[in-house]
Design goal:
59% of the residues lie in helices and 0% in strands. By secondary structure, the protein is mostly helical. It is found in: Membrane.
Length: 149
């Protein structure tokens, strides 16, 4: 049950991330992924849904540290918390080997997004504008006067 949910979510995510997939424009990909998560939550919430190992495993380890082995949840808890990792790997392999094609061209909308990311990286749009916070030591700004109060 858990593997099927994570497998379908993985196939959906990798289909949305594929730049050669012409059926999913980049602006609509978050909504498709959100609808896939909503369908998983609505269909599996009665039994319990663990879609994020980082959220479940950290709390479980903290409970084990504080209250000991009775708070662990048994073997079912480990199976439920860790099945999404191999399911996502399996969904990536399935999508890459069966659904993706290296001969397909990149769609124009995806190409526009990729070029925008390349231009942002080239122009340094992610870097701060102040000279005091540059990454290199020889490029850092120098404070000339220190004011004492």
């Amino acid at each position: 049950m858990f593997v099927a949910k994570d497998y379908i979510l993985g196939i959906t995510i990798f289909a949305c991330l594929d730049p050669t997939n012409m059926l999913v424009p980049p602006a609509f990909a978050p909504f498709i992924i959100a609808m896939a998560y909503a369908a998983a939550i609505w269909s599996f919430s009665a039994n319990g849904l663990i879609a994020n190992t980082a959220r479940d495993l950290g709390g479980r380890l903290a409970a084990l540290t504080i209250w000991g082995l009775p708070a662990g949840g048994g073997s079912y808890a480990a199976m439920a918390a860790l099945t999404n990792i191999p399911a996502m790997l399996l969904s990536y392999l399935t999508y890459d080997l069966l659904f993706s094609d290296s001969d397909r061209v990149v769609d124009s909308s995806h190409l526009e997004v990729l070029n925008a990311h390349k231009n942002h990286r080239r122009m340094g749009a992610g870097r701060p504008l102040t000279p005091e916070s540059e990454g290199m030591d020889h490029e850092k700004g120098v404070v000339g006067v220190v004011e004492r109060v």
